[in-house]
Amino acid sequence: MSRFQTSWEIAKRSWAVLRSDKSLAWFPVLSALASVAVIAVLGGLIAVAGIDSSPTGDSLAPIGWVLIVVAYLALAFVQTYFLAGLVAGADMRLHGQDSTVRTALEVANSKLHRLLPWAIVSATVSMIISMVERQGIIGRIIGSLIGLAWNLITFMTVPILVIEDLGVGAALKRSKDLFKHTWGENVIAQGGLGIVGVLVAIPGVLLFVAGAALGTVGLIVLGAVGLVWLLGSSVIMSALSGIYRTALYRYASTGEVPGDFAGIDFQAQFRPRRIGRGGTGFGSS
User: Fold this and answer.
1) What is the DSSP string of the chain?
2) CB neighbours (10 Å) of residue 178?
3) Is the pLDDT of residue 283 over 50?
4) Band of the pLDDT at 190, cuts 50, 70, 90?
5) What are 60's strand-pairing partners?
6) Is residue 147 within 8 Å of residue 105, measured between CB atoms?
7) How far apart are CA 38 and CA 117, in angstroms?
8) How many Å apart are CA 31 and CA 78, to the nearest integer?
9) Theoretical Cys-Cys bridge with 243: which of 90, 135, 217, 273, CB 3.0 to 4.6 Å?
10) What is the pLDDT of residues 30-88, one digit of tens each?
11) What pLDDT score was predicted for residue 58?
12) Could you report the per-residue pLDDT of 114-124, keeping only the tens digit for each?
């Protein structure tokens, strides 16, 4: 089975988990709504108090930069918090336990002392990458490469914070070790789920194109349907990604395939690299 076929199968298994616990789909929705609220509130404050009082009024006052930093931190926390809830809910479901939005968020609430520091680290790195990307074409290339490396190395960090209850430094090291020893050499399999997301979004795009070809009325009607499709597919793919991430973490950390994913050849697609004579990356720290 090719890596893409495995990723497609994992997407189907993740979809089965989501169908068995539809509450998992609420976490991307809540994350998006909370992010919009943060942007609206802080964006409004920046517009009111963050613009300087010079005649041109086209630059930020010091308070504006402070508000931008606060916005980065708030958005990072919102995304981390609801991802933690999704991971907690998915982990309960993968262990055959009932999960609700409330019970999953209770787990996230119990890990706030872990999630908040991670959100600060994540936001700081995002701001640094953003500044690098503003430095012309070379900056954009370097920033993109740094961002890709950061995302790969930290892919397991939130599950580790939630499930293993480690501090940020230890969680980063643990995530790096799992990436390096267990499935880092086959990370292209993650891209398979991204390709699935693109395929799922195609009908929504085609609805926009068809609507535009039919004129204003068609664009309004079919465009609205297409927008709903795209939003719905985005929510679903975000939920599937969280489920996939949790299942992959469980395999990477224990070497055991979660029951809902039984039959998928994780070992062939995410074959662990040997650490030393007779050992693998499972359970390394």
Assistant:
1) --HHHHHHHHHHHHHHHHHH-GGGGHHHHHHHHHHHHHHHHHHHHIIIIIB--SSS--SB-HHHHHHHHHHHHHHHHHHHHHHHHHHHHHHHHHTT----HHHHHHHHHHTHHHHHHHHHHHHHHHHHHHHHHTSHHHHHHHHHHHHHHHHHHTTTHHHIIIII---HHHHHHHHHHHIIIIIGGGTHHHHHHHHHHHHHHHHHHHHHHHHHHH-HHHHHHHHHHHHHHHHHHHHHHHHHHHHHHHHHHHHHHHS---GGGTTS-HHHHSPPPP-STT--STT--
2) 28
3) no
4) low
5) 51
6) no
7) 19
8) 6
9) 90
10) 999 999 999 999 888 888 776 665 555 556 777 878 888 898 899 999 999 999 999 99
11) 57
12) 999 999 999 99
Count of beta carbons in the 10 Å neighbourhood of residue 71: 18
Q: What would the DSSP string read from start to end of 43-105?
A: HHHIIIIIB--SSS--SB-HHHHHHHHHHHHHHHHHHHHHHHHHHHHHHHHHTT----HHHHH
CB atoms within 10 A of CB 246: 28
Could you tell me which residues come within 8 angstroms of residue 157 by beta carbon, excluding any fewer than 6 positions away? 118, 171, 172, 175
Structure tokens at 225: 């349907």
Domain definitions of the chain by residue range: 3-269
Closest CA to 274 of 180, 190, 134: 180
CA distance 139 to 79: 26
Residue-wise pLDDT for 212-230, tens only, equals 888 888 888 888 888 888 8
Angle at 48 between CA 47 and CA 53, to 5 degrees: 95
Amino acid code (one letter) for 136: G
Angstrom distance (rounded) from CA 19 to CA 155: 24
Q: Whole-angstrom Cα distance, residue 251 to residue 41?
A: 40
Residues in the chain: 285
